[in-house]
Structure formats: C-alpha cells, structure tokens
Write a structure and sequence with these properties.
Blueprint lengths: L9 E5 L4 H12 L3 E6 L2 H8 L7 E4 L5 H15 L4 E4 L14 H29 L2 E6 L12 H21 L4 E8 L5 H9 L3 H8 L12 H8 L10 E4 L8
Parallel strand pairs: 1-2, 1-4, 2-3, 4-5, 5-6, 6-7
Helix pairs in contact: 1-8, 3-4, 4-5
C-alpha cells in the first residue's frame, strides 16, 4: 500500500547497529527508505550494514556528546541528501539497587537514554522543517509504565522519554512533524540477555506473564517502525505504543 511506502524518505536510527535499532532499520529499509545507522562501534556498524542492503550508511558517533550528537544528525542529512525520519533508540542500562548507584552512573544512563534523544530531536528539527514534514520515534520501555527495584535511572529515563515525546508532539504538530514513542516489552537482545544473567528468575517470569508466551525478537519492531514513519500515521502523534506480546495487559 502507498500509505506504508517510504521510497524517497531518509531515516537516521541511533543505536541502529544491533538489537531493536537494527530491527527497526531493517523494516524502514525494506519499506524503501534510505537509512543511516549511528553507533559508537565502527566494526559493529559495518556488520549491520551488510543486513541493510545498498544505500544504507553508518555514522560513528557518541550520542552522549552534544557536539557529536548534533554532528551525527547533520552528517546523516548531508550524506542522505535530506532527513525525514529520526529514531532515537540509543540507550544503556546499569542494574543495581537504588542505594548502590554512583551519581556518575545516574548521569550516564540519563544522558544516553533521554538527553541524547532531546539533543538529536532538536538537531533534526530544522531538517524535518526543510523537508516539509517528518517523523520522530522515541524508544521507551515497559519501564516507562512499571517499576522495578534494579532500574531507577533507566526507569526514570524511559518515563522521561514518554513525556518528552508528548511535549515535542505538541510543539511540532504545526510543522507536520509527528512524534511518537514505542515501548518494547522483553525483547531478546544483548541488553536483555545480560539482564537474564543478572536477575534471577527473570526469564521464567517474563514467559509466565507474556500472553504470547515468548520473548520478542528485534524484527518484531519492524512493523511499528514502518507504521510510525509512514503516511499511515500522519494523524497519530504524542502516543506511547507497547510492543510487548501482551505483557502490559496482564494483571
């Protein structure tokens, strides 16, 4: 359907060299978009490009550095010829009880997960304005909705992502820019594999609570990415959509 056609569009996906980011980037590429992925690891970027096909590019950038983050956005727009889509996916987690965190760990998580999304969105705004419309997708988490004893800064950052999404959606609707959040459930990535090693019984609890009775896969995020980045969602903005196999609806 033309509603989901992304030919002629250019997208930047931060943290797009693996996991959820790569799954979304693959979806956008299959829908016809030119895709730039950004990540700190050049080798990982290069490996990811092999899964994205011709026309995709990679940018080495540390999104926690303001200058590098803004430069990343401008570089993507310059190399792709335009910028229509920004997916703010880059993020980290440090799992500890609240009383055990060092303040620099708090700042590292907030800067990676929340501040970088604000800076990248701010940098993307003039490019999207120039294009005449645009899409921003921010990656939240089930921890945007739920609490857990071992993710204080992560949960705070992901709750903040939802509120940032709403604020940007209100501010930029007049520019025909839609801003939405995706809240992935328990997706099988390097980040969650480490969580299963660190949190006893997590695997069994996730399976028991998820009606789909499985962990998600990065490719499960491809469809929502295409929807939120295409004309199909032109009247959808400020939302936070769970993609979690039903995890959030279980009591």
């Amino acid at each position: 359907m033309d509603l989901f056609d992304l030919k002629g569009k250019a997208a930047l996906v931060t943290g797009g060299n693996g996991g959820i980011g790569l799954g979304m980037a693959q979806g956008l590429a299959r829908a016809g978009a030119k895709v730039a992925i950004a990540g700190r690891d050049a080798q990982k970027n290069a490996a990811a490009l092999k899964q994205l096909g011709a026309g995709a590019i990679a940018i080495v950038a540390d999104v926690t550095n303001e200058r590098a983050c803004r430069g990343m956005v401008d570089e993507a727009a310059r190399k792709l010829g335009r910028l229509d889509i920004l997916v703010n996916n880059a993020g980290i987690n440090i799992r500890k009880r609240p009383e055990e965190y060092q303040l620099d760990e708090w700042h590292r998580v907030l800067e990676s997960n929340l501040t970088s999304a604000f800076v990248a969105s701010q940098a993307a705004y003039p490019h999207l304005q120039r294009a005449g419309s645009g899409k921003i997708v921010n990656i939240g988490s089930m921890m945007s909705l739920f609490g857990a004893s071992f993710v204080a800064p992560y949960g705070a950052s992901k709750g903040g992502i939802v509120q940032l999404t709403r604020a940007l959606a209100c501010a930029w609707a007049k520019d025909r820019i839609q801003v939405n959040a995706v809240l992935p459930g328990w997706i099988d990535t390097a980040l969650t594999r480490r969580a299963r090693e660190e949190v006893a019984g997590l695997h069994e609890r996730v399976l028991a609570r998820t009606p789909a009775a499985r962990w998600g896969a990065p490719e499960d995020l491809a469809g929502i990415a295409v929807f939120l980045c295409s004309a199909a969602s032109d009247f959808v903005t400020g939302t936070a959509i769970p993609v979690d196999g039903g995890y959030a609806v279980q009591g």
